[in-house]
Each structure stands twice: as structure tokens, then as C-alpha cells.
Amino acid sequence: MRRRRGAGAVPRRAAARRPRAGRVAGALLLAAAGGAAAWGALRVAAWAADPATFPVRRVEVAGTLRHTAPAAVRRALMPYVRAGLVRMDAAAARAAVEALPWVARAGVRRLWPDAVRVEVEERRAVARWGARELVDAAGVRFAPEPASWPPGLVRIDAPDGREAEAVALLARVQARLAEAGLRPVRLRWDARGAVGLVLADGVAIEVGRERTEARLARFVRAFGAALAPRWKEVERVDLRYANGFAVRWRAASGAGADAAGGAGGRA
Q1: Residue ranges of the POTRA domain (predicted)?
Q2: pLDDT over threshold 90, residue 259
């Protein structure tokens, strides 16, 4: 026997459709809210990225600067800070500062709400490289304006690609010669590996290709007794001998080539 529906009964299909319709409406509302939020976020991002919203009003330059003017650092940064604090490409700005000839490393960071700070570390030149460049302690060559070169740098003439080795050799040569109170102003290291020096007083020293440090050490040991009393008369010293070295005297001294510190053929 079929049961009769009461007067207030709701058909099953209609009852099932109502929750489904509610879910669809809720999803539409959520989608609309999400779209509005995304649109708002885009508007905020566009507002923040506008250079006029967060303009860079101040650039701080920090670091011990001996050869790089702060104004030069600011000029290098100018194309990037014009984009505003938000849109500024910090990596590109750093690269622009590091492209300055005396700059070894730089760091660029934002200082909210309107400033940029640049930390600069300069290169330290240890020698001249040929006639047109300098070289730092790491063997990196760079070419700043000659007017900015520090005075008194030793000149190195050596093959390209051997910068770090040449700088290290110079340091050892300087330390050894300092024991005798002598100072090199030029180091020549040719493609065959032969080393030659010119000292501050104009004396030339031929060291040769082999046992460079041992030969210099032998020369320094003999310097005080054998050469120091007549050093002003010396024109050239040749260390390329197995057991000693040869001396060429200046013409005014009246002496010719002489041997000191032992004998033996030249190596």
C-alpha cells in the first residue's frame, strides 16, 4: 500500500538540489573574493613598484676609499636607483659599482623607506704590470687612470696568465733583498722563466731560470763582506754561476768584471 505524502513534505529531488545550489553559490562567491583579492594585490604591487611611491632620496657610500670618489660610486648607481627602492636591481647595481677600476667588491642593500647603502672594498695594488696596468695581491690586473697610481710600485714584466705567480715571486724577492737593505724597482720574468731585477740604485741583477731563491740567498749572505763596501761602484751582478756570482763594475771605478762568492761555470 503506497504511503501518502503529508501536506508539508518536500520532494526528494528538490531537497537534493538545494544544498548543491548552495555549494555552487559559495564557490562563486569564493572565486569572486579571490579575484578581487588578486586584483587588489596587483594594484598594490603596481603602486609599490612605481618609482614615485618609494623614490631613493639618499645613497650612502661606506668603506675606506683612497682612490674611488664617492661621487663616482653614486654615478654608477644612478641608472638603477632611478627605478625606485622596490624595482631597483640590486645585483646589477652591485655589478656597476664593481666595474669601477679600483673596486674589488661591493655590496648594495636597501634602507627603508628611501635610501640605499653601498659597501665598497677597494683593490690594493702591489705592483705595476707592464706600462699600462696594475696588479693586486691576488694577481688580478686592472687599469685605473695613471694619475691615481700609488708611487713607488715595482714594475713587473711577465707573461700573461702568470700574474699570481709573479706577484708571489716578487714578494719573496723583496723579503730576501730587504735583508741586505736593497729594494727592487723592476722584476723581469721572461717566457723561458729567466728572472732579472733592477734595484732602486740602478744595479741590475741577473738571477736566471733555476734555483732563484737559493741564488738570492747566497748573494745576500755574501753582500755585507764582499760587496757592501764598494756597492756604489757596482753596475751589474750575475748570479747564474754554480758556486758564486760575477760583478761588473761601473766604468768610473776602473775595474772590469770580477768574480765573488766562489767559482764555477755559469748555469
Answers
A1: 54-123
A2: no
**Residue 200 in grid coordinates:** 732602486
CA distance linking residue 145 with residue 125, whole number of Å: 13
Q: How far apart are CA 85 and CA 56, in angstroms?
A: 6
For residues 168 and 181, give the distance between their C-alpha atoms in angstroms, rounded to a whole number.
Answer: 20
Which tens digit of pLDDT belongs to each residue from 139-159? 999 999 999 999 999 999 999
Q: What is the pTM of this model?
A: 0.75
Is residue 64 pLDDT above 70, yes or no?
Answer: yes
Within 10 A of 147 (CB to CB), how many other CB atoms are there? 6
Cite the residue boundaries of each domain of the chain with CATH code 3.40.50.11690.
Answer: 125-260
The Cα–Cα gap between 102 and 39 comes to: 47
Q: Phi, psi (5° rounding) for residue 41?
A: -65, -40
Judge contact between 239 and 208, C-beta under 8 A.
yes
Q: Which fold has domain 58-122?
A: Ubiquitin-like (UB roll) (3.10.20)
C-alpha cell read off for 10: 518536500
